[in-house]
Amino acid sequence: MGGAGPGPGRGAAARGASSPAGLGSRWPGHPSPPAAAMVDERKDGSYGTPQKYDPAFRGPIYNRGCTDIICCVFLFLAIVGYVAVGIIAWTHGDPRKVIYPTDSRGQFCGQKGTKNENKPFLFYFNIVKCASPLVLLEFQCPTPQICVEKCPSRYLTYLNAHASEDFEYYKQYCLPGFQKNKGVAEVLRDGDCPAVLIPSKPFAQRCFPAVHAHKGILMVGNETTYEDGLGSRKNITELVEGAKKASGILEARQLAMRIFEDYTVSWYWIIIGLIIAMVLSLLFIILLRFLAGIMVWVMIVMVILVLGYGILHCYMEYARLRGEAGSDVSLVDLGFQTDFRVYLHLRQTWVAFMIILSIVEVIIILLLIFLRKRILIAIALIKEASRAVGYVMCSLLYPLVTFFLLCLCIAYWASTAIFLSTSNEAVYKIFNETSCPVAGKTCNPETFPSSNESRLCPGAHCQFAFYGGESTYHRALLGLQIFNVFMFFWLANFVLALGQVTLAGAFASYYWAMNKPDDLPAFPLFSAFGRALRYHTGSLAFGSLLLAIVQVIRVILEYLDQRLKAAENKFAKFLMSCLKCCFWCLEKFIKFLNRNAYIMIAIYGTNFCTSARNAFFLLMRNIIRVAVLDKVTDFLFLLGKLLIVGSVGILAFFFFTHRIRIVQDTAPSLNYYWVPVVTVVIGSYLIAHGFFSVYGMCVDTLFLCFLEDLERNDGTPERPYFMSLTLKKILNKTNKRQAEA
Fold first, then answer.
1. Rounded Cα–Cα distance for residues 84 and 90 (Å)
2. What gap in Å lies between CA 693 and CA 598, rounded to an integer?
3. Which GO cellular component does the record give, naming just one (predicted)?
4. 210: which DSSP letter?
5. CA-based diameter of the chain, in Å?
6. CB under 8 Å to 479, separation ≥6 — which residues?
7. What SS3 string covers 252-290?
8. pLDDT of 227-262, one tens digit each?
């Protein structure tokens, strides 16, 4: 949580004001431990000088200047460069390349406005060639491919069709513009027409042999073999191997299409589920303001009950599957399956779920036992945060602003990435069935028939291989993609930082108002937002830049780790694991430090480095308070999220699996019921996190201000406490009257 206040004003004032060294010393129900054990303020000055009393200080400073201007300039230049990259990408890119299949000349099949508009399917002349290793190297089958209106439905060979009435039917599967002015041998040698047509069915806009099994025997039509059109017969299994290679990269697309279909029939139910999560989150926040203590304990009990029901449900499913055929197969033996429903028919799956839920249940119960006394302290702090949020109600809507800005960042990054990845040019290479000295070299399909390469390799073809390029722009594509990722992280972190500073400024205004809410400034949230953008864009850019650099390094390490998985160098793997761990820890530390620095920026208007230093020093001077209070409240907020997500998730599970009889016929039929369930769970968590993040920032800000208050003031008329009456009562502190002074 956190935070640090500007260096000064902490320990001395706190000691002079007989401040409780650790919050436990004066809290109800807590015996006062020895002073030496509870004092967490550092007296040696190693963590900065506590803030001195300032009679003019009344909360967030309004007369402030711009901070970290250089970083603001860098951010502006980076955004200009990012826009330029986007314009270049949109000029050169073509997203159709990831949507439509392409023929041997790189032309799209089924694309409106082209000559292939009415030809949506891709036809392979000889799909057996797709079993070649070239498929994995070039992502293209070494056989001519054309766009056709429909896949072949008859079995024909060119040898039989060229002199019969079937030729007109056969001709539509030859190269565009083919004329019957060559002999059979020349046509097959030049690859103008396929040697054989095999009954096929479309799959992902590609024509694949209509292979089916009859009594365990693979067949096409009524045959187990087929004539290859060159005078010999081949087994159907060769077709299967070629089709597997050609369709291997399409299995993921098939899964994606099924998931997309599920979204199309369940999207409105998903939205209803997310609305329910939003209503529950808002209701929970409102009730928390008036019934914080009861709500916290109800929340704890409900989470335990939800986990308990999960354990019971897993056991019931485990018992139900006893004796069923195939239910005792292990997960290892089953392997990975794209249909995840298969796993729910295994007893081992439910045992794993039951063990995981039981471990979580035990951990939560143990934590509650050991932290039961500190929960009372956290409840008081949450009540104070509830009042602050109640006086700044528009703060609950601010996550929508953050969400909107993050959506813009994600949309711009994703679209730029797609346009960059599709801005390559069509590259044509020479493919040949036999060994050829020029095989694999680039070629021009327009001039290839009259080139020297075609004479060196008479049976070779110049066909589309992949999208690439040799220009300066194409060589810089990798760097542009990295820059795209870096800017996404930088801008996303900047948006989050802006939200943290805005909320911190609004809630700090509440805390430092002596007479709440009368002294609260008008529109504190908008004032804080304006101050953040006007004066501290550079500081926010600085903090988010540090975090973005670390995150990009982590992405690069993950990429390198994937590349090294096939390596046998154990030292390299160990070093990579150490680096990943170190940068993960560094990212967490920077996020923690940034959050507290942003609070100090919102209050004092200092630059990022000064704010981060003061925040860290204040944090270290009050380390016991941070450990006891802040983390307990974080834990309680986590339980609140789990309660909302668990409730909505269970409701979604029963609804989409048709287990609620009242609406059993209303639920849509799905390929994978887990698609909407997982979407609702993730969306519910994000919604709950948005609401609770406001509360979390409020608690963090009030806690930091509370520490500042204890160090600055002592309760005398000259130096009164700004904390609320509730906090004063809990800490057994009062503001002394003039007569008593």
1. 10
2. 15
3. mitochondrial outer membrane
4. -
5. 120
6. none
7. HHHHHHHHHHHHHHHHHHHHHHHHHHHHHHHHHHHHHHH
8. 544 555 555 555 455 444 444 444 555 676 677 777
Between CA 155 and CA 202 the distance in angstroms is 16
For 515, other C-beta atoms within 10 Å of its C-beta total 7
Quick check: 599 pLDDT over 80? yes
How far apart are alpha carbons 687 and 531 in whole angstroms? 27
Which residue is it, tokens 């335990």?
Answer: 304
Side chain identity, residue 326: G
Q: What pLDDT is stored for residue 631 in this prediction? A: 67
Cβ 658 vs Cβ 48: under 8 Å: no
Question: What is the spatial distance between Cα 570 and Cα 257, in angstroms, rounded to a whole number?
Answer: 39
At 468, phi and psi to the nearest 5?
-160, -145
Question: What distance in Å separates the CA atoms of residue 643 and residue 8, rounded to the nearest whole number?
Answer: 41
pLDDT for 10: 34
Q: Is the pLDDT of residue 738 over 90?
A: no
Residue 688 tokens read as 């709950």
CB under 8 A, 24+ apart: contacts of 434-442? 434/459, 436/460
* HSE of 627, CA atoms in CB hemisphere, 13 A: 10
SS3 assignment, position 374: helix
Within a 10 A sphere around the Cβ of 397, how many other Cβ atoms? 11
Written in H, E and C, the secondary structure of 419-466 is HHHCCCEEEEEEECCCCCCCCCCECCCCCHHHCHHHHHCCCCEEEEEE
Which of 408-417, 506-515, 689-698: highest mean pLDDT? 408-417
Per-residue pLDDT, 492: 93
Nearest 5 degrees, angle CA 629-CA 634-CA 637? 125
CA dist., res. 140 & res. 136, Å (int): 8
468 membership: H or E segment, kind and range: strand 461-468
Give me the DSSP letters along 12-79.
HHHHHTT--SSGGGGSTT-----HHHH--S-SSSTT-PPPPP-TT--SS-SS-----HHHHHHHHHHH
Which segments of 165-209 are extended strands (E)? 196-197, 200-203, 206-209
**Residue 12, token pair as written in the block:** 């001395």
Give percent of the chain above pLDDT 90: 14
- The enclosing H or E element of 467 equals strand 461-468
- Residue 8 in contact with residue 52, Cβ under 8 Å? yes
* Helix 537-564 / helix 477-511 crossing angle, nearest 10 deg: 130
pLDDT of residue 28: 36
Three-point CA angle 317, 321, 324, nearest 5°: 165
Tally the C-alpha atoms within 13 A of residue 51's C-alpha that lie toward its C-beta. Answer: 27
DSSP designation for 102? B
Instruction: Confirm if 348 and 322 have CB atoms less than 8 A apart.
Output: no
Q: Which residues pair with 213 in a beta bridge?
A: 218
